[in-house]
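Feature request, filed as a ticket because there's no other form

It would be nice if the structure record came with a short human-readable summary line next to the tokens. Right now we just get the raw output. Example of a typical job, pasted below so the devs can see what we mean:
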Amino acid sequence: MDAVSIVAALASGGLIGLVLGLVGGGGSILAVPLLVYVVGVGSPHAAIGTAAVAVAANALASLAGHARAGRVKWRCAGVFAASGMIGAALGAELGKAIDGKQLLALFGLLMIGVGLSMFRKRRTAEAPDVRLTRESAGVLLPRLVPIGLAVGLAAGFFGIGGGFLIVPGLILATAMPLPYAVGTSLVVVSALGLTTATSYAASGLVDWTVTALLVTGGVGGTILGIWLGRLFAARKGVLEKGFATVVIAVGSYVTLSSL
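Raw output as currently delivered:
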């Protein structure tokens, strides 16, 4: 690799880590375009495989920071991740039968819908102390399992992670505040990312040099993202609306570029 490619890979990793640390999702949808158009990875399949490994590693790094800050609901995350992995496996099989550009266009429209829904005022109060226990299981499991399954199905079907869907899905299922949803979502992002990464790595579709650079850059981005998340925690309305705006913007770009 030349110096320009190395710098591009480090900067791309920093951006992926920043997004994951700040909003808990979006790393995978940014990673593939960055690898193809900025870093210059020639094969789209290699870009997907490399991105999956890097996103999973950066998500785990970001998860460590959020866990230390006590912003991870582990039991909720475990149920959501398990349901999501089942859904992703089913969705991947369905997605293979559909043209890639059509998938991207549909995914973009879905993101726009999710972003717009986040601008609506919630009818239920936030529940910062929500926990999955024997007492709350009767209420939370009927929400976590089907929503996790649906998010995983969409992630596998569209083949682009699912971080932008996981955060709103967790909020819908549990009413946990956005900072907790961001931290908790990283467990799910890591699980789905590792599943995809293992598959592509087994097929030899991972550029390990680029992966190392992405992860290195991602460490700095993650630290900055978590710090910014704390900075905006007191202004959660601004963070949530900003997150929704990014979801709509990326969804619009994906839809238009696919069409």
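Something like this underneath would help us a lot:
DSSP finds ten helices and no strands in the chain.
The chain has a mean pLDDT of 83.
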